[in-house]
Structure formats: structure tokens, C-alpha cells
Amino acid sequence: MCIRDRFFFKQRIVTPLNLDKWILVYDNRSYSTAEKFVDVLYNASNTFGIKVDYPEYVETHNVRAEGYIDAIQHAVKKISEPQIILCILPRNAVNEYPKIKRWAITQDPPHLTQMVKFDTLERAKNMMPICSKIILQINAKRNGDLWRIGIPKEVPKKTMMVGIDISREKGFTYLGFSSSYNPVFTKYYTQLMKLEEKTEISGTVGSLLCNAVMRFYEETSKRFFPELIIIYRDGVGDSQKHEVFCSEVESIFRVFADKLENYKPKLLFAIINKKVHTRFFRKNTGGGETFSGRGRGSRRGLAEESRQDLVNPDPGTVIHEDLVDDNLYEFLIMPQHVNEGTGTPVRVHVIYDTSGLSLTVFEELTNALCYGYDNWQGAIRVPAPCKYAFTHARLATRYTRTKPHAQLLSQKYFL
Questions:
Q1: Reduced to 3 DSSP states, what percent helix, strand and coil does the chain have, rounded to the nearest 5?
Q2: How far is Cα 27 from Cα 96, in angstroms, rounded to an integer?
Q3: pLDDT class for 289, splitting at 50, 70, 90?
Q4: Closest CA to 97 of 65, 55, 53, 141
Q5: Upstream peptide bond of 55 is cis (omega within 30 degrees of 0)
Q6: What is residue 213's DSSP assignment?
Q7: How many CA atoms lie within 13 A of 132 on its CB side?
Q8: Which of 151, 199, 146, 211 lies closest to 175 in space, CA to CA?
Q9: Of 21-35, 77-91, 177-191, 296-310, minimum mean pLDDT range
């Protein structure tokens, strides 16, 4: 079912992965909630075609991270390499999440984990929406496709999508690098790089892209490399565009020439700018949310009355004339539906292009990719590769502050 730019699952997903080997860890005061949670999770999973068996219940009397880790270590002796470890965290578990997550992603082999707060389950009048979200998230972490996006037929099958973004928080800076390795752009290889204060990003981007290309090659059983690479670079201001072209784009070709001498793919490098001050609207012809406000005193001014006739643009609106520089290869796009306040578009500026794709096709592709983020049933502001890169980097800056085990780089463990 689709409502504006959102869609809601009421049927089987594309690739349902059965959950029959998993561990549930909870503290000794949460047993009844844990039992109810499993029952509702079972019912929610049936909707999507996922079969869920009962987990290995593990109770801990120590509500600190150490207690949960000890319980997990004890459980994996019975169930080796579980599909997922789900932890119901107690109240006020401020420091437990990062410690458990950091431990799980650095083990050999690493563990996929899913956390949910006890209060979230206990206070919910209806657990079904929560459990539906959790089972979809688990399926995505295990590389099961939830849905497919519509890709323009002009885009070659041997295409790799790349998203690059940087997260800065609490004195830490990480660069996230996400690259697709299947033809429908649902599976991603996500790399992580910690950036020190004076780290040169240009060489890092070239090396990470080379790793991504090799991963693409391995995932295709070493049959071919990507013929076209489309890069969406987020986290760049207008004043930095020239620097990005001179450093990052040129470094890509230097690294390719050094490590993959005969490899010369087509390349499209686009910069995403979310800090756009431009706003645009359409006239209300019925069915849209109008803008309301208060005039001074009891009178409403002409501007306010006129505002009643304006609504946000429809999802997928693209503007590539008048409001953009005619001398540049750029456009404004608003993929998502906004029902409160004014919508903010995103500016997409292509600084290098040998792809051969037309502007219209690239606009359609960019809009389609905004529907490809597994953690949201609808369109987001930026293409999914960018969001995956940022989500991965943000997890590191905010919580784990370390690189994960290499085995997890091909899984969306960070969702």
C-alpha cells in the first residue's frame, strides 16, 4: 500500500529470511515482557513471509553491559554463529548499548545484534508496529531484500552506486563509504575510515573505491568489473566543490592507474548539498496541506491569505531550470513528502561525467535511489548509498568508535 511517498507492507517481502537460530537476552525482571515480545514478533513476521522459531532464552541478573556480554558468551556455546542476538535493555541503559555493540562487531566471528529498550516494549499499547519494524530491520541486516526500486532501463546492468559521507561528533570523525555490488542496488559493501585532524581525504577516497571495485568483482564470481560508477558525495559545501574535483576525482584515476592499470570505467561524480535555502511551492488544487499562520491582531494580511493557496511540491519534484545555474550540471530535487512546514530541496551538482546518461535519466535514478533505504518505508532526502554511508559513520562516531570485523562490511549491521 502506498500513501504519497510512503509504502506499507501488508504482504511477503522480496527475500524473507527465516529466523530459526537466534538468541534473546533479557534481565531477570523482563521475562514476561520478553515472552510477549516473542509472541508478537512471531505474528508480525508471518505478514512478511518470515518464519520465526523460538529463540534461546538467556536471562541475566547483571543489567550492565558486562552481564549481557557474559550471557551472550554462555549462549553461543550452545548455539554457535547465531543469526541474530536480540537484547532487551533495561531502564537507564545509557552506556550498555555502545559497549555491547562494540564487543559484538569486533569478535571473530562477529555477531549481528538488535537492541530494543524494555521501556519501549512495556509502554507500548500495541507491540505489533514495533515488532514489524524490528523483524524488517533484522531481515535487512542479514542481507534479505525488503523491496526493489524502479531503475531506469538506460542504466547499465554492470553499474556500481557509491555513497560517501562524513560524521563528526564528540571529537571523532569517521568517513563512511558505501558501494553496491548487485544489479538492483540493494546490497552494499560499507567501509569505514577514521579521519584524524589533518588526514588527507583525497587518497582515502581513491583507495576505498578501489576496494569497492574489487569487492564488486568478487561478488560477480570474478567475471567482470563495474562498467559505470556513479558516486554521490555528501557533506561538501559549495566552497569545497573545486577542491573535491581537484583532489578526490583525480585521486580516483591515480589509484586506478596504479592498481588497476587497464581498468577505465565510466564515471559520474555528483555532490549532494542538503543546506539549501531555496523553497518552492505549487498552487493548491485540492488534497494538499496548506500553510497556516497567525496575522497580527485580528486581521489577516494579504500575504497570509495568499499562503493558503500554496502547498509543498509533490514528492519527486525536480527543478533544473531558472532556479539553478544554466552553466552548471545541477538540479534541485525533493523526493520526500512533507506534511508539516515547508519542504527543503536537495541540490545535486555533477562535477564530472563520462556516463553518457541524459539529465532526465540521472534525475529519475536519483529519485528512485531515495526509496532504497531499508530503515524507512518511503523516500528519504538523499540517495540510499549516501544514507548508508552516513548511518555507518554515525554509529562509529557516536557509539562504537572502531572498525567492525571485515565479515560485517557486506552486511547492514549498522541499521
A1: 35, 20, 45
A2: 13
A3: low
A4: 65
A5: no
A6: H
A7: 15
A8: 199
A9: 296-310
State how far the Cα of 164 lies from the Cα of 244, in Å rounded to an integer.
12
Give 25-42 pLDDT, tens digit per residue.
999 889 999 999 999 999
CA gap 412, 414 in Å, rounded: 5
Amino acid identity of residue 2, one-letter, is: C
Angle ∠(160,172,195) on CA atoms, nearest 5:
50
Strand partners, 22: 84
Residue 328: partners with Cβ closer than 8 Å, 6 or more residues away: 349
Mean pLDDT of 306-310: 66
Identity at 387, one-letter amino acid code = K
Cβ neighbors of 289 (< 8 A, separation 6 or more) are 311, 312, 339, 340
345, 319 Cβ separation under 8 angstroms: yes
DSSP string, 107-122: SSS---EEEEEHHHHH
Contact predicate 145/369, CB 8 Å: no
User: Where are the strands (E) in 195-329, listed by range?
Assistant: 228-233, 266-273, 282-283, 310-311, 317-319
Contact 332, 347 (CB under 8 A): yes
3 state SS of 87: strand
In Å, how far are 38, 73, 90, 137, 407 from 34, measured between CA atoms? 6, 20, 12, 18, 30
